[in-house]
């Protein structure tokens, strides 16, 4: 469990340099678009795995792609056991967003490599704050984050990485438009990387250290996932969208129901879905904890590839259709070959909202009014937001625009007191939206169009309400809605829905409004009902690329220097953590027993802290500031200092952790279920390690965070009796001193560690 200590990672990086030099010599250089995948190589690898370790058993699509990317099947003696074995894989590509790329690049710089071993891209989408509107917000981001952009651009030039400037678009939309290719394997330093599963790609969210493994030609390790099959039947009703499929599924599975699984969709219902609609569904698989999600190759994918200048990939994928779908035996008897099967009748779905504060609390549209009243939720909608990486496709926006046009024709604008914001997913989407009158339709009812960036979805929203903690309700087509995530206000009720439902809420100004049954009032005072939305899967006149300045920078300058000022408050050269001393952990204090939901937002907040993503020491000041302390009746960011003579005696979590670090006192976090749910940010593992944490003991972990802890040398342990053992640590845990038994000689095949607790 501790073999991933930082120094060992560095030693493996050194080996990776030699491996890359002796192989292909690294990636061919920065790419504007993906090249045609080597399907012959994939099928050759898969055939070898089938004939040896797999004994020619039928495979799901997810299994095919994984086994086609085994680093060295010759070294395997038996078939992997899902949930137990670790696969060593060879990813085809890496994509990084600007917030997480900083730490990944700082780690890659330690490798000594001249170029990334696989095609890699950096996308500047997280550091643009939404406030005045598109161009002004992008220009301001250059003022506030120039140091970061210049650092990332220089690193991209030095190592042969494609660099997408701020304003070019959101990472997942740009990957779908340019880099996703059916049957390939990609790692992305963002939890919503699975968005590319809408193009039959196995795209997995990881921390920066995992991405660096792939960039340095080191086999990437993944615990062999189970496969959850979702059988889609029928077709969606006119008011329903693909977003409603995954909202309902999240309500059924819960935020941890997909942990350890790849979600694979199958059935006749797939043929009725667009490529971008399938991407929306895959995107939000992250909200149920799934490793990733994937659809088999369809004709709508072929159409999308052709529309986005990748006809050669479409032709090659079409010629390899057998590889890009589950085996026939799986399709005929899914219950036998999937680890679990969920049935979804698309025709029976209705629109709905998920929330507040968690993406798995699902309420169908028909029950929303009664639920709003019963729960006492604020019915007035203060802001309605559409776009983001989840729902900013041409189809999404054209369907929403059809409702906007209906309202305009009746003289209706967005309801008084409701702010309406639109975030295009890319410059290509924005430019096409403008050309085809979609942007004008939104602006006619009062919309403000924001930059092609994440913006409010990740908390980059300079929201001026005059009452920063006032209770209010917002609705969005985003993917995540943790408390205070969007605007920093813990009293903002945030609900997730489709763009169509969000626009209906914007027009009515009410969360309880049901466009299927309720009416609006036109400019003459007459009631009218919105007709079902209509939109196009793809633009009739094709996509327009937009402004040239938002095309990727593709220079490769190996002699380029990378600027990091010693006095910088935003960038800091990394120093390797001290290696494990090979002994049991001793004299470890319990810093905090976390109560309830503790996401990566709680462990390493975003928002105003995004500016420190490249400076570990400064970022560590926000460690666990959102965590509730079970021992102090749920007080947030407050703990007791148990070490006599240390200050503060009672204070914030980072302050007490810093005091422990200064005194050489190691500490542990005790956590509840699904600890580390949410984003892929490895900072949530690096910060505790930096401050002296050696273990996190939880009732259960989210997959990415558990992996990130291991990569940074923090031992993640799960209680053997989670419903009993956790409560040992809820009364005066600061008085407890922990020793371990079993860390030395830990066997991954049967990992077991005892915690010896003294007062």
TrEMBL record:
<dbReference type="InterPro" id="IPR006311">
    <property type="entry name" value="TAT_signal"/>
</dbReference>
<dbReference type="InterPro" id="IPR000573">
    <property type="entry name" value="AconitaseA/IPMdHydase_ssu_swvl"/>
</dbReference>
<keyword id="KW-0456">Lyase</keyword>
<dbReference type="GO" id="GO:0003994">
    <property type="term" value="F:aconitate hydratase activity"/>
</dbReference>
<feature type="domain" description="Aconitase A/isopropylmalate dehydratase small subunit swivel">
    <location>
        <begin position="590"/>
        <end position="721"/>
    </location>
</feature>
<dbReference type="GO" id="GO:0005739">
    <property type="term" value="C:mitochondrion"/>
</dbReference>
<dbReference type="InterPro" id="IPR001030">
    <property type="entry name" value="Acoase/IPM_deHydtase_lsu_aba"/>
</dbReference>
<keyword id="KW-0479">Metal-binding</keyword>
<dbReference type="InterPro" id="IPR006248">
    <property type="entry name" value="Aconitase_mito-like"/>
</dbReference>
<keyword id="KW-0408">Iron</keyword>
<keyword id="KW-0809">Transit peptide</keyword>
<dbReference type="InterPro" id="IPR015931">
    <property type="entry name" value="Acnase/IPM_dHydase_lsu_aba_1/3"/>
</dbReference>
<dbReference type="GO" id="GO:0005829">
    <property type="term" value="C:cytosol"/>
</dbReference>
<dbReference type="GO" id="GO:0046872">
    <property type="term" value="F:metal ion binding"/>
</dbReference>
<dbReference type="InterPro" id="IPR015932">
    <property type="entry name" value="Aconitase_dom2"/>
</dbReference>
<keyword id="KW-0411">Iron-sulfur</keyword>
<dbReference type="InterPro" id="IPR015928">
    <property type="entry name" value="Aconitase/3IPM_dehydase_swvl"/>
</dbReference>
<dbReference type="InterPro" id="IPR036008">
    <property type="entry name" value="Aconitase_4Fe-4S_dom"/>
</dbReference>
<dbReference type="Pfam" id="PF00330">
    <property type="entry name" value="Aconitase"/>
</dbReference>
<dbReference type="GO" id="GO:0006099">
    <property type="term" value="P:tricarboxylic acid cycle"/>
</dbReference>
<dbReference type="InterPro" id="IPR018136">
    <property type="entry name" value="Aconitase_4Fe-4S_BS"/>
</dbReference>
<dbReference type="Pfam" id="PF00694">
    <property type="entry name" value="Aconitase_C"/>
</dbReference>
<protein>
    <recommendedName>
        <fullName>Aconitate hydratase, mitochondrial</fullName>
        <ecNumber>4.2.1.-</ecNumber>
    </recommendedName>
</protein>
<dbReference type="GO" id="GO:0051539">
    <property type="term" value="F:4 iron, 4 sulfur cluster binding"/>
</dbReference>
<dbReference type="InterPro" id="IPR050926">
    <property type="entry name" value="Aconitase/IPM_isomerase"/>
</dbReference>
<comment type="similarity">
    <text>Belongs to the aconitase/IPM isomerase family.</text>
</comment>
<feature type="domain" description="Aconitase/3-isopropylmalate dehydratase large subunit alpha/beta/alpha">
    <location>
        <begin position="64"/>
        <end position="509"/>
    </location>
</feature>
<keyword id="KW-0496">Mitochondrion</keyword>
